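#onboarding

Welcome to the new folks! Below is a worked example of what a typical request in this channel looks like: someone posts a single protein sequence, and someone else replies with the predicted structure as tokens. Don't worry about understanding the tokens yet, we'll cover that in week two.

Example request:
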Amino acid sequence: MVRYMLSILKSAIPLYPVIIVLASPFGYAREPFRADGPIETREILKRNQLIDYCWEVVPHTTGKLHNSLNNYGQFTDAMYTPNYHDEMTGKYFLGTRYPSQSNHSYTMYGELWIGAIAGRDTLVSTSYGTYYNAEFTPLPCPQGGFRKRSIEKMSRYYSKEAHAEQEYEAVFTDAVEITGDEYWLSEPDYIEQRPHKPIGLQITQKSYSWSYDYCDDFIIVEYNIKNISQDYLRNAYIGLRGSPYISNIRSSPYLPYDGGGDEFVGMLNTAPSAYPCTGFLDTLDLLYTVDNDAYPNESGNYSIQSPRGACGIIILRAPGDSIKPNFNWWVSNWADLSRDWGPRKRGTHGNPFRDMNGYFGTPLGDRNLYYTMSNGEFDYDQITAYVDHSAEGYLPPPSLAFEVARGDYVDFLISLGPYDLIPGSSLPLAFAVVCGNNVHKEENDFNKYCRPRDPYEFYHKLDFSELTRNAVWASWVYDNPGYDTDGDGYLGKSRVCCLDSILLENGTYECTKNREIYYCGDGVTDIRGAAPPPAPEIRLAGGADNYMAGYFKIRWNGLYSETTLDPFSSEYDFEGYRVYYSLSPSEDEFVVTTSFDKEDYIRWEWDNDYGDWVNDASPLSIDSLRILYGGEFDPFDFTRESPLNFPADDGNISSFYFQPQDWNESNLLDTNAIHKVYPTQPYPSALNLDTARLYYPEELTEEGNLKYFEYEYTLRNLLRSQMYYVSVTAFDYGAPGLGLQALETDPTVNMVNAYAQSTAREVESNLDRIIVYPNPYRIDGNYRADGFEGRGRPDLPDFRVRALHFINLPHRCTIRIFTIDGDLVRTIEHDYPIDDPNAAHDSWDLITRNTQAPVSGIYYYSVESEYGNEVGKFVLIM
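Example response:
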């Protein structure tokens, strides 16, 4: 009976996490437990329904990789609930998606395993448990919920202690014993014939994500695993287990997926070193998961619906001096033991073969879980499953190995150990969930023929270069190469790279340009990457010109954008601003309308040692160049072909040529472009606003901002009936010495949505008449197809995005809608701050106060405010 139930569970795995997430608050509290801090007890607690445990799921939605995780041990959560809302960014998300704007799901059901020997017991705790029930528990509320931080100054979660744009921290524990009526919270260990037995651990989990181009393909996760029991824990192992499921999400999130269950897993042990240091191999031990064919269309070609990428895991930090993971994979089939299989090595005298209770692949029960974590195996890639690996000590492949090699429902496990934990001590672990695109470069014959000629022939058609590049960047962000974090003089590992060479007559190459390149950090955690300047907070004021075209006056203050130090390059690298607008909140639909960037130039210098032009310095302003080379200096006079030869301090001649950084659109006096509101205002006497308010109030605007940094731009020729999304981004000049291109903030970070209509102040001053549109409203008006309804909300049906708009409203008023017979249909309380860009606008969703759709007919409206009452009418054709 147990085995039958397990087979049903296994077959339902793609849908089962819905139940876990929706039921995750395992019983709400009647008498909530409250504590002043994390559990620091040496006692095993009893888990019961009277305690308000903070079961919670949060998303990372800043970058191209969207992923959800929870506070009970899953680092990739199988979130299928549609329209889950991320309150940090305002975006909606659905499980693990890459790239974020696609319908490609790379869900891995990733979870934490920890095993140890405590006395005579071999114990393992996992996030789901052997049979997919939680063995980790979040702390009681409020301590158990996620703490949220961001480096974005505009974020409500801004913190000086933050390292990333989106950062979460939570604490959970396995030190809660399941007793009595609470057995359903964690299935017992049927192999050992006992309830789950906790080890006595407290885990602090942190996770980080960014939106910048070089680091938006990965999410970094850290665990600090603390022994809070009284036991000396011997031979502890830490495992990361996952089940990849790569698919294409259909139009309805309830149908859930096209494909899935035909994935490969494997390990990329090394990868070619990144430019400019070619010719070397970087050690990665990067686990990869990739679909076997990426779902070509009926014509056999890839399309936008094809998930051609790969995702994986790379260990960034482990206890001890080195990272040497074990790697195991298996295919589970709990209903048919003959099809439950994974690579297994032959037994030896010192390590006899373990039959794992008849399961050749899936480990069930604490002892088998622990054995799999500690077996020391590094399995061959799944794609070579039917190749005989007996020479490497493995058992010969079974008859089903070829089917497995073609892709299957597969589980993997990365594990590290052994470690000892005395009471009160901790183990650190850090890793990155990383993705990369374009692994499938061409449609190959792996699934077109019954049996491929050679698995390696197929494998070598896969291109993992994007995945490995992103994994390397994850390691660099976690521990910056060439940066002495702890001040002991050690900058990390470096290599001498040949950047250029010549072919000699004897057919060999001679290196003509060498350079020392750091490729590894100093072993001390940084979690720091190059970042663009913070985006400014913008204010919108709408209106209509003499031709009744809408416009926005966009104002912002650039104090923080222009005076924030880049954490990676340690330079003030602000370069300029760009103004964007869009008709939807999707990042891909924003278009730039104008820009400003400082007038500065890249100086290239001839290096005799390298035999080439190099640039390791920041761009120089025109004023700086004229101080260096004379008041009449013009950088355009000197090119690569005709450089500037200048005497150096050592008596030699230095040669330079110059290129403009960006477009050098630096005129801030043109009122048709980005311009300064106070063009004659000198640089502030103090950048600290409190100091300026006290000693230099004349340098501040009425709003309390420094006048010097006030900018404005007018966005014209807009439709007054259409909602616009407006953003001002800030960008830098990159880090030339580190090979980084210029970075720019995401336009969705500070976007403001509004209608290009008169402000509430103007309405209340002029007593403008209220306008309703569209009037008449026609249900067959095709408003959604024309973009006037439902932009940015493709997840909602037509009847949920309908809207009748009211403009020229006072900022505070009551709108009442009546039938022609005088029956009240709906009341709308309109109450906005007077300077809010939407304070003069509101809408009715065409749903009555009885939650019904209105019928066709003539309707009256009244608007009541302190400025009087106004009555009008409109027509609905439904």
